[in-house]
């Protein structure tokens, strides 16, 4: 099956821009149905890398075609656990995923990947091979709150990723109060725009009125940097 590549644009924005833009977006796009009453859900991802920090270095070096693996959960719950591989080709992305149980997650932390060979999803077998040949291992936990808007035309997703925090990879992915380190100064966040084909003009026009600074920032890299150069006390923050 041909990979379904999508556009991905990222911007650094302030709380003030987020507040105004999210208010305007709410008039033309609904929140993702999985978001809570406040239109927000929590995301935690345990990212993997090898001994040479290949995924990290390829991102910083601007390698056009690259990939990285992560295990993702929502709202610190084990109801939905996914092993994902995010592929990047220039400004385009696509994602493969396969579901995991809590028991399978535990096996992966213990370095037992054999069960992945029994899963039908190609990403499971790819991870097994890469884990054995490149010795990939947990690198960092990335934690943030996401406010997502969706539009079926062009499969548009616009997300505000707030309170981005770094957590040590050996900590418990499901522990709400895991010690975390803030990545951005107060009042800053990442706006992401993902779409297939062309961004509808109605939505494109909304962004022309706002001072948006495009960025190639990677939450994965930023959190690794923050964790390894950590200063000050961690933030103990439970989910709202």
TrEMBL record:
InterPro entries associated with the record: VTC_domain, VTC_sf
Domain spans labelled VTC: 6-224
Species: Candidatus Limivivens intestinipullorum
The protein's name in its UniProt record: Polyphosphate polymerase domain-containing protein
Gene3D superfamilies registered for this protein in UniProt: VTC, catalytic tunnel domain
GO BP terms in the entry: polyphosphate biosynthetic process
């Amino acid at each position: 099956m041909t990979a379904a590549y999508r556009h991905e644009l990222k911007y650094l924005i302030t709380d003030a821009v987020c507040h105004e833009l999210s208010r305007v977006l709410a008039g033309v796009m609904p929140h993702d149905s999985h978001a809570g009453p406040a239109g927000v859900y929590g995301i935690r991802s345990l990212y993997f890398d090898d001994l040479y920090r290949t995924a990290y270095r390829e991102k910083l070096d601007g390698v056009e075609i690259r990939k990285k693996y992560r295990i993702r959960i929502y709202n610190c719950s084990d109801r939905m656990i996914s092993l994902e591989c995010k592929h990047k080709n220039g400004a385009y992305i696509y994602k493969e995923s396969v579901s995991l149980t809590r028991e399978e997650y535990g096996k992966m932390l213990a370095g037992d990947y054999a069960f992945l060979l029994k899963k039908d999803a190609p990403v499971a077998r790819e991870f097994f091979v890469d884990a054995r040949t490149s010795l990939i291992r947990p690198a960092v936990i990335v934690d943030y709150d996401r406010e997502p808007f969706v539009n079926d035309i062009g499969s548009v997703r616009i997300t505000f990723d707030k309170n981005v925090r770094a957590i040590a990879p050996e900590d418990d992915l499901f522990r709400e109060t895991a010690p975390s380190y803030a990545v951005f100064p107060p009042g800053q966040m990442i706006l992401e725009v993902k779409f297939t084909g062309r961004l509808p003009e109605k939505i494109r026009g909304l962004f022309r009125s706002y001072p948006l600074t495009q960025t190639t920032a990677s939450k994965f890299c930023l959190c690794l940097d923050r964790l390894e150069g950590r200063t000050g006390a961690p933030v103990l923050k439970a989910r709202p």
